[in-house]
Amino acid sequence: MSSTIESVPLPESIRLINHGPTVMVTAAHGGRGNVMTAAWTLPLDFDPPKVLAIIGANSFTRELINASGEFALNVPPQALVKAALGVGSESGRDVPDKFARHGLKTFAAQKIAAPLVEGCVAWLECRVIRDANTAQNEKDYDLLFAEVVGAQADTRVFSQGHWHFETAPDELRTIHHAGSSQFYAIGEAVKTA
């Protein structure tokens, strides 16, 4: 089953994270890129699509985001759980190239400078919203409000605005962090009709 990546219409893009997956956050500025894992991201609005990400003010990724004003949310599947744990367990200040250290390859985003992680099943390209309403929350609570400016997904698991985990191999199921080094893969669909 070969991978095909297709653009996702922006009003549907928040569906890529509305089920609460762990994400890899990528950022770049001044010739330096970084990747970290985050479990606290959520959709805020459909059109224009907005997301909220909680990223510590002292992290190297946050430093790059503050400088560039943009970041990407990469949704890793079960096949990348070890890399997700690894990049979330060390700082880009201590490890100059976390991508190489954890065997992650990247490709260019369509709308932002931050790289996208190959092997993920969805990608959201985000620009930080900075105004009087968001500035204090960003400072006090490490909340980053962002508009999604580009989105893509692997059609083996997401197409026509919906996830299709039931027809994809288990290694393509998204992962969900439950604390420490414990992750779970998304489960079976529940029929409602």
Architecture overview:
It is a single chain. The strands form 4 sheets. Strands 1, 2, 3, 4, 5, 6, 9 and 10 form an 8-stranded antiparallel sheet that branches. This protein has 193 residues and is an alpha+beta fold. Strand 4 and strand 5 (49-54) form a beta hairpin. The protein has one domain (5-185): Electron Transport, Fmn-binding Protein, Chain A (Pnp Oxidase, Chain A, Roll), CATH 2.30.110.10. The two termini are 29 Å apart. The protein has helices spanning 60-68, 81-88, 98-101, 132-141, and strands at 5-7, 23-29, 32-38, 41-46, 49-54, 70-75, 106-107, 116-117, 122-128, 143-154, 158-159, 162-163, 175-177, 183-185. The model has no long low-confidence stretch (mean pLDDT 93). Residues 15-165 form the Flavin reductase like domain. Its cofactor is FMN.
Give the helices and strands as they follow along the chain.
Answer: EEEEEHEHHEEEHEEEEE
State the shape: globular
Oligomer: single chain
Strand content: 35-45%
Compute the CA-based radius of gyration. 16 Å
Second-tier CATH architecture: Roll
Question: How is the biggest beta sheet arranged?
Answer: 8 strands, antiparallel
How many domains make up the 3D coordinates? 1
Mean pLDDT: 93
What is the number of beta strands? 14
Report the CATH C-level class.
Mainly Beta
CATH fold descriptor: Pnp Oxidase, Chain A
Keywords: Flavoprotein
Domain Flavin reductase like: 15-165
Protein name: Flavin reductase
Pfam families: Flavin_Reduct
